[in-house]
Specification:
The protein starts with a strand and ends in a 6-residue tail after the last helix. Strand 1, helix 1 and strand 2 form a beta-alpha-beta unit. Helix 1 packs across helix 8, helix 5 packs parallel to helix 6 and helix 7 packs parallel to helix 9. The radius of gyration is 19 Å and the shape is globular. A 6-stranded parallel beta sheet has the order 3-2-1-4-5-7, sandwiched between helices. A 3-stranded parallel beta sheet has the order 6-8-12. The chain has 2 domains: 196 residues, Rossmann fold, CATH 3.40.50; 87 residues, UDP-galactose 4-epimerase, domain 1, CATH 3.90.25. Helix content is 43%, strand content 15%. It is an alpha/beta fold.
Length: 320
Amino acid sequence: MKKILVTGALGQIGTELTLALRKKYGNENVIASDIRHKASKVIEETGPFHWADVTIPDTLKHIIINYDVDTVFHLAAILSAVGEKDPQLCWNVNMMGTINMLEIGVKHKLDRIIIPSSMAVWGAGVPQDLTPQDSVLKPSTMYGITKVAGELLCDYYVQKYGLDCRGLRYPGIISSETLPGGGTTDYAVDIFYSAIKTGSYSCFLSEETMLPMMYMPDCLKATIDLAEADFANLNHHSDFNVAAMSFTPKQLAESIRKYIPSFTIDYAPDFRQKIADSWPHSIDDSSARNEWGWAPSFDLDAMTKDMLEKLSAKHKLGLI
């Protein structure tokens, strides 16, 4: 990977992935793009940034040709909760963006394209405990439908055109640096900010809703490790299960109370509860472990401690 383009670079994962790639490959070698015209200060000051609409392929081609891009991390997408409010927008952005990038990959002979998927690909009929790599995919959200279609498209382009396209199914992602962008697992980020600022939180999922989660440092590691893996060792391509930890809102609150004993939580499930109920409780990621050596570094308590340390330092509260 010599010249890298990140689409959706101002999103929750995109921001931190861009910075991690710039640290590893050099600031000028990682081009950030987003549909928002104004980049965040840290993105703008550390390397190139360009506006791009992934539904308009010419805006992507211009960047790829101008910078001689060989690798793309395609993160631009409408997420689950936002997608349920506007399913047509979700379909248009997620599907047109994906197929535009794949077509560009073939025509401009890109070395590889990484297009993340999601645990939202699962739904009714899937085993919810240790959900296997190869399983029935019947999502209940438009976001999940687009991710299933995206996985199939990527595998089609691998088989038909020999395009190196890779993807991994993200669980819920928790970050101390960037705010979430409209997903059903957002509570697991919001809860830390509320714990720091107010000492209480009202959760939009029920207390026993068990979901797979991952701390951002592990998310970045998984994404970059997959991108750097030897293609010859991959039996799967666009749909790798990756896992780190699974917990409920109640268990997360108990972990937070180890450091903030006065923290309180109440529960007011909304429309996102139905989405969460269709997703796995835990994931079998043995294919990723066997094919490219995936292994997480953070469990629930290690993640909680690190999140609270970073957020309390940001707000100069010295809670830990």
